[in-house]
Write a sequence for this structure.
């Protein structure tokens, strides 16, 4: 999946620096952290490994961060890999057989594991056993290996693509939701301190409101605005500096990026429900990126709705684009 605007890969290093290391520093997602905290405490009391965990939700909300936090809270080492990197069961056998007792194995984009690899994981997850094939042809021998108990943490932006038997093997399944502006404001206050930039509360609230409910967007915006503050405004961020910086980044008053506006613009020209394929071709992005990264925020903030016949703009979206919405009976669809 290509990275959208605001998801700058070059920010990886500083992204890590802003990553909370413990559950107590992780803001928001209260139901998720409450459940995880309880499971961690219980596992620690029993001196057992944590149950397998599946984290789902749109990108940039903290799935990778939470996987690292769980390992830290359990005092366990973490091994990190991703679905597309595991080609065959043998690759997985190599990783599994080198895990230490209680270790966390984090598999990102777990929905993209090949079916044979997924099925190979089943016995490892359930019985902590794997079978290794030795030799080839007539001399093949199968060796069963008992693994030290470990915790599999899977992350996915597409939980629906996981098979039911796979999903059911995770004892703990948690879905992350978009952050409220207030929560993002708190995340930004912590990040501003770590970045050593003086930012007042209204300035941070301005950035928070326009970060698409996403921690990664908020932090990336803050870093760019810090550059502006440092070079031109004595390293201080207030509402005016935040507004200037966000305008430079192409983020509008509602927090929509250029591509958000192109998606809405495409739907506005059709003035009726449009299929995802048409939207993807028109704006030049792949369907998965639009569906997983852009739409959750546009739907949650009431700019578009999914209908059986396709995507449809709401009155709010037409108003945002400065256009007159079609009459409700013009396309036989109820507009919100
Ligand atoms: N609750 C939070 N509190 C503070 N910072 C957070 C929180 N959640 C996420 N972040 C910040 O947002 C950044 C993105 O989070 P993370 O990489 O964990 O997201 P992700 O869900 O794994 O995204 P992806 O699906 O793209 O891999 C992190 O570097 C971290 O700095
Ligand atoms: Mg991640």
């Amino acid at each position: 999946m290509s990275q959208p605007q605001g998801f700058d890969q070059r920010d990886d290093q500083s992204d890590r620096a802003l990553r909370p290391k413990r559950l107590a520093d992780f803001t928001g997602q209260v139901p998720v952290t409450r459940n995880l905290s309880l499971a961690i405490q219980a596992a620690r009391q029993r001196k057992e490994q944590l149950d397998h965990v599946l984290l789902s939700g749109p990108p940039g909300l903290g799935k990778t961060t939470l996987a690292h936090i769980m390992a830290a809270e359990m005092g366990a080492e973490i091994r990190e890999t991703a679905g597309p990197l595991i080609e065959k069961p043998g690759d997985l056998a190599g990783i599994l057989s080198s895990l230490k007792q209680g270790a966390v194995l984090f598999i990102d984009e777990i929905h993209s594991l090949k079916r044979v690899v997924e099925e190979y994981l089943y016995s490892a997850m359930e019985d902590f056993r794997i079978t290794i094939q030795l030799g080839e042809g007539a001399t093949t021998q199968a060796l069963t290996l008992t693994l030290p108990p470990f915790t599999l943490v899977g992350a996915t932006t597409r939980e629906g693509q996981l098979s039911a038997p796979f999903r059911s093997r995770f004892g703990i399944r948690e879905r992350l939701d978009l952050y409220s502006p207030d929560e993002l404001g708190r995340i930004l206050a912590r990040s501003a301190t770590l970045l050593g930039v003086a930012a007042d509360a209204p300035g941070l609230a301005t950035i928070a409101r326009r970060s698409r409910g996403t921690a990664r967007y908020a932090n990336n915006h803050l870093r760019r605005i810090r550059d502006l503050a440092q070079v031109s405004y004595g390293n201080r961020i207030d509402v005016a500096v935040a507004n200037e910086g966000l305008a430079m980044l192409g983020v509008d008053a509602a927090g929509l990026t250029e591509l958000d506006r192109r998606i809405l613009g495409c739907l506005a020209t059709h003035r009726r429900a449009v299929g995802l394929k048409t939207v993807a071709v028109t704006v030049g992005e792949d369907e998965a990126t639009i569906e997983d990264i852009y739409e959750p925020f546009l739907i949650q903030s009431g700019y578009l709705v999914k209908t059986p016949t396709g995507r449809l703009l709401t009155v709010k979206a037409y108003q945002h684009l400065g256009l007159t919405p079609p009459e409700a009976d013009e396309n036989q669809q109820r507009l919100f």
